[in-house]
């Protein structure tokens, strides 16, 4: 497995040695590839062609679409190592985590290849003896997606797979920093039998211009966006002009709540998996650790020890290490948040000091003594920092956890079954993990509430988000 073999998954016409996007390795700043960028007119032409292609695709039987998706899944599995290396080179994600994302991303294609055959309508008991009432589920139409750099492969498959399963077409604009995974997925999908115009990837230098196109093009009937709340609000406002269907997975501020009766070792393991995966650059990772007074000191001590034992390195050389942030700007932002927290009274109690001098690396760190009023308690950190707050009562923990405009994911560690139910019901979040720090799976609906967005990806709900329900009345029976 080499960089050349991995880049061989890209079609030659997607590379551009002169005017393309520069894809840099965050671990060392090296140039990985130059990728062709598409302007607004070229992307608009893709949308036009996609709208034509969806007619024939939507007319195929569910099993025919299912078989093509299954072939795409098989190709992803067969090329898993090359896909993982591409992801590591463009995002910095350690090779071990990248392999996990390939499997995770492929699972959505496998799942929706099966769900394609279960897009059931219904026959409703009639209100009159000479009439019949039924519903059909039909594809939304031509779709557009804008995806982030932190999960450059899975964020695409969990949008594209349900769109294709439902009978839609889709054009994807990947993040500027990580277009290689997207282009490789496009190549494999076309090899599997997905019509070329049905699914296209359009890297672009000016994201806002392509976003405006998606929001205003009359043939785009649905937009799926994963990214910041700020940008999500802009898309929502601009798409309102044509009343487009939206799925928005936006920012988060996930609380990780540890009660006195929790298994502290289990909680620390969950904290490490949730907070430091992908160097803390995940939408659902624990962002605030709320720990009850009785176990606070023990939890902080064990978490600090676990963090201090982390290895930070290039993700290719050390597949099991924690890798870099996406770029130097991200490092500067996270460093500023940490320094501000320390200035406000927080304490560093666990930190890795052996960090590569080159590349966009930030040392993992635990901050104790954090309080609600500190800036870091309200920010989505997106870096390897674990701020710990102390609380006394269950009511206090619930109040602090819900005191945010965001509502994506939350985590609770407690052995009390009754408390588990109270917290699951009381937390104002779209997803709640109990005694587990990893909640993402293709079989469950992924998504948030409040300013974290709406719509669901994964599960049968993910297919429904790409389909319209049509009510039909048959009279004269």
Automatic annotation (TrEMBL):
Alphabetic keyword roster: Oxidoreductase
Residues covered by the Aldehyde dehydrogenase domain: 19-471
Active site: 249
GO BP terms: gamma-aminobutyric acid catabolic process
Record Gene3D superfamilies: Aldehyde Dehydrogenase, Chain A, domain 1, Aldehyde Dehydrogenase, Chain A, domain 2
Class in the EC hierarchy, top level: oxidoreductase
Single GO MF annotation: glutarate-semialdehyde dehydrogenase (NADP+) activity
Enzyme Commission number(s) from the entry: 1.2.1.16, 1.2.1.20, 1.2.1.79
PROSITE patterns registered for this protein in UniProt: ALDEHYDE_DEHYDR_CYS (PS00070), ALDEHYDE_DEHYDR_GLU (PS00687)
InterPro entries named in the record: Ald_DH/histidinol_DH (IPR016161), Ald_DH_C (IPR016163), Ald_DH_CS_CYS (IPR016160), Ald_DH_CS_GLU (IPR029510), Ald_DH_N (IPR016162), Aldehyde_DH_dom (IPR015590), Aldehyde_DH_Superfamily (IPR050740)
SUPFAM superfamilies, alphabetized: ALDH-like
PANTHER family registered for this protein in UniProt: SUCCINATE-SEMIALDEHYDE DEHYDROGENASE, MITOCHONDRIAL (PTHR43353:SF5)
Family: Belongs to the aldehyde dehydrogenase family.
Name of protein: Succinate-semialdehyde dehydrogenase/glutarate-semialdehyde dehydrogenase
Source organism of the structure: Novosphingobium taihuense
């Amino acid at each position: 497995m080499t960089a050349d073999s991995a880049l061989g998954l890209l079609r030659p016409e997607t590379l551009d040695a002169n005017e393309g996007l520069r894809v840099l390795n965050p671990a060392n700043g090296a140039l990985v590839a130059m990728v062709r960028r598409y302007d607004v007119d070229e992307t608009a032409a893709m949308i036009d062609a996609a709208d034509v292609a969806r007619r024939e695709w939507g007319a195929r039987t569910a099993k025919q679409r299912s078989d093509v998706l299954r072939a795409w899944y098989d190709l992803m599995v067969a090329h898993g190592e090359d896909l993982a290396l591409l992801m590591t080179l463009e995002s910095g994600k350690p090779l071990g985590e990248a392999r996990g994302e390939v499997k995770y991303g492929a699972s959505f294609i496998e799942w929706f290849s099966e769900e394609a055959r279960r897009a059931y309508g219904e026959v409703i008991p009639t209100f009159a003896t000479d009439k019949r009432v039924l519903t059909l589920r039909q594809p939304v139409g031509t779709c557009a997606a804008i995806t982030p750099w932190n999960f450059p492969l899975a964020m695409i498959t969990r949008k594209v797979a349900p769109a294709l399963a439902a009978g839609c077409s889709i054009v994807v604009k990947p993040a500027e920093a990580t277009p290689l995974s997207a282009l490789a997925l496009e190549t494999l999908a076309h090899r599997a039998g997905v019509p070329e115009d049905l699914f296209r990837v359009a890297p672009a230098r000016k994201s806002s211009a392509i976003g405006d196109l998606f929001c205003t093009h009359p043939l785009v009937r649905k937009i799926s966006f994963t990214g910041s709340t700020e940008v999500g609000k802009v898309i929502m406002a601009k798409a309102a002009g044509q009343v487009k269907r939206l799925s928005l997975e936006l920012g988060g501020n996930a609380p990780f709540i540890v009660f006195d009766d929790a298994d502290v070792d289990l909680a620390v393991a969950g904290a490490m998996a949730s907070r430091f995966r992908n160097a803390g650059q995940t939408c659902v990772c624990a962002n605030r650790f709320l720990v009850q007074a009785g176990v606070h000191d023990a939890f902080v001590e064990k978490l600090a020890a676990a963090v201090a034992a982390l290895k930070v390195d290039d993700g290719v050389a050390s597949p099991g290490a924690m890798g870099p942030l996406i770029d130097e700007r991200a490092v500067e932002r996270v460093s500023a948040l940490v320094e501000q927290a320390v200035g406000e009274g927080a304490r560093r109690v666990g930190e890795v000091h052996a960090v590569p001098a080159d590349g966009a690396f930030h040392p993992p760190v635990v901050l104790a003594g954090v309080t609600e009023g500190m800036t870091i308690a309200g920010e989505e950190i997106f870096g390897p920092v674990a701020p710990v707050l102390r609380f006394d009562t269950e009511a206090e923990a619930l109040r602090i956890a819900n005191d945010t405009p965001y509502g994506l994911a939350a985590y609770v560690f407690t052995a009390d079954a009754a408390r588990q139910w109270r917290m699951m019901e009381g937390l104002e979040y779209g997803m709640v993990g109990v005694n587990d720090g990893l909640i993402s799976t293709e079989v469950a609906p992924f998504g948030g509430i409040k300013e974290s967005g709406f719509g669901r990806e994964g599960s049968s709900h993910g297919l429904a988000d790409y389909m319209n329900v049509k009510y039909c009345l048959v009279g004269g029976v």
